[in-house]
Amino acid sequence: MTTTIDLTPYAPPVPARVLTARSADGTELHVEVYGPDSAPGNAPDSAPGAAPAVVLAHGWTCSTAFWAAQIRALSADHRVIAYDQRGHGRTPASAACSADLLADDLEAVLTATLAPGEKAVIAGHSMGGMTIMAASARPAFRDHAAAVLLCSTGSSRLVAESTVVPIRAGRLRTWLTGHILGSRAPLGPVTPVARRILKYATMGAGSAPHMVEACARIVHACPRRVRHAWSNVLHLLDLDHAVRELRVPAAVIVGSADRMTPPVHSRRIAEALPQCVGLTELPGLGHMTPVEAPELVTGTIRDLVTTHIAMKEGA
Question: What is the pTM of this model?
Answer without folding.
Answer: 0.93
